[in-house]
Amino acid sequence: MTQQNSSRHANANLFQLFANRFPHDLSQPALETHEGLHYSWHDLLAASARIAHLLTSLKLPAGSRVAVQVEKSPEALMLYLATLRAGLVYLPLNPAYQKAEMAYFIANAEPAVVVCSPNHFGWVSRLAFKTGTAHVFTLGEDRTGTLLERAVRFADEFVTVISQPDDLAAILYTSGTTGRSKGAMLTHGNLAASAKVLNDYWAWRNGQTAQHEGERDVLLHALPLFHIHGLFVACHGALLSGSKMIFLPKLDVSAILHHLPRCTMLMGVPTYYTRLLADARFTRELCANIRLFVSGSAPLLLDTFKQFQVRTGHTILERYGMSETGMLTSNPYDSAEGPRVGGTVGKALPGVNLRVVNDQGQPCAVDEIGHVQVKGANVFVGYWQMPEKTREEFTDDGYFKTGDVGKLDAQAYLSIVGRSKDLIITGGYNVYPKEIESYIDDMPGVLESAVIGIPHPDFGEAVTAVVVPKPDGQVDESVIIAQLKQLIANYKVPKQVIVVDELPRNAMGKIQKNVLRQMYSPTTTGLQTA
User: Fold this and answer.
1) Percent of the chain scoring above 90 in pLDDT
2) What mean pLDDT comes out for the span 354-371?
3) Predicted local distance difference test score (pLDDT) of residue 96
4) Is 461 in contact with 452 (CB distance < 8 Å)?
């Protein structure tokens, strides 16, 4: 890699792709915070240039990793952009990770630079220096920390390093709901392919030549920055289209309701939409300016999908993607391409080859459940330092085995049934949890459910339902089981129903079934399933 960039259009660096689409008038607003701070496109360029100079001054080898565990802030986004500009590899980490988790990530990724919150510097720096990291900086959400103190000394212009499409841009660790997290290696080409497809498919407005604010999209951004949804879908979309973002540090219903009338897009996880629906202040009038609500990272309940339509007149667009691939499918944005169908994640995006196959690798029939496999320019190049695992996860003809189980209907809409690791085998029969959950979730008084398999001496695994009632609802185990016996084969009917106040979730709202299996395992509870 080199900084000698003779043609800005010849550079495959992802940042250069963004910069080429920035508004011509760089004084236009690019980002606004919940505190009322405003950043222009020139501010993004200048601040990322200073940080890129700082990183370059460290004389790091090509491909060095920059591990970042900080709270959400505009400066955190600028650090990401600076890492791209400097030709280094960005490694975002959840701020909630504790010592044992961070020790694993740092030891596995071997970053040359670690950036952490100021109040974590003591223990993070000890971990980092112990494993050979040479540089540790701090960055606070209030614009404090040694990273900015050092960067301010450098020039506010920087010639972006030339990158090739297959150069690494980021390593994104999987959520680790089972076993150790794996680092998905994503190239500049992978991330660019995904961003460009979504830019077109979701009809982001071209903010480059817009003459006034009303011609630009305004994204209400309440997602975290350490995850694919908040960083590689939401931020990339805004950056590539020259659209303004309003940054909220986290889900805050009152703040969303306050800013919503000025925005055109909101991306969230299902929890965002259930919380909005639970607030009487959330009205159709507040959504008048919105053109697109997107939901992802966890399944959206059909009941939520329908309630949202009735309350707002808008139909939530649900899509499907992974850390390893970016977005793979989407319900249509344009109604001419079909309706948005609740309970599905839509059709394969342009450029994505998607298939559902049986255990023998043969294509499944319409509505037949099988393994979801994908191929495309957006698909990652492998797992960091895991060549054998990488080989295992790709077929001989180059398809990535997503680990998800699903089915395609006659219109090629994909429905995700569950994860292959969540498959329950009871008495020799395969049981797909999503099928049973869909029936339970439709029952009166039920808010949501999770179906798991726990060890059983006779059946191998016993189907078990963990159910959360609605705030004003009541559920009865015997009633649920009796109703299910009228709907599905007896071997699929749960042996027991456990009622809880809430289900364990990870940072992006995904139900942690591994936690449930541990909680209700006979070895944990001392109980045997009937």
Assistant:
1) 78
2) 96
3) 84
4) no
Strands 265-268 and 292-295, how do they pair? parallel
Tokens describing residue 323 = 């850390």
Q: Which stretches of 370-424 are DSSP H helices?
A: 387-392
Task: Write 118-123 long-range contacts (CB < 8 A, 24+).
Answer: 118/144, 118/145, 120/69, 123/99
SS3 content of the chain, % helix, strand, coil (to 5): 30, 25, 45
* 109, containing H or E segment: helix 99-109
Half-sphere CA count of 123, side-chain side, radius 13 A: 10
Residue 42 has pLDDT above 60, yes or no: yes
Mean pLDDT of 501-529: 78
Residue with the two structure tokens 């995006």: 349
pLDDT (average), residues 328-346: 96
CB 509 within 8 A of CB 522: no
Encode pLDDT of 267-281 as tens digits: 998 889 989 999 999
Helix (H), strand (E) counts: the chain: 16, 25
The residues, ordered by sequence, that sit 6+ positions from 243 with a Cβ below 8 Å of its Cβ are 204, 205, 207, 216, 217, 218, 219, 237
Amino acid at 203: A
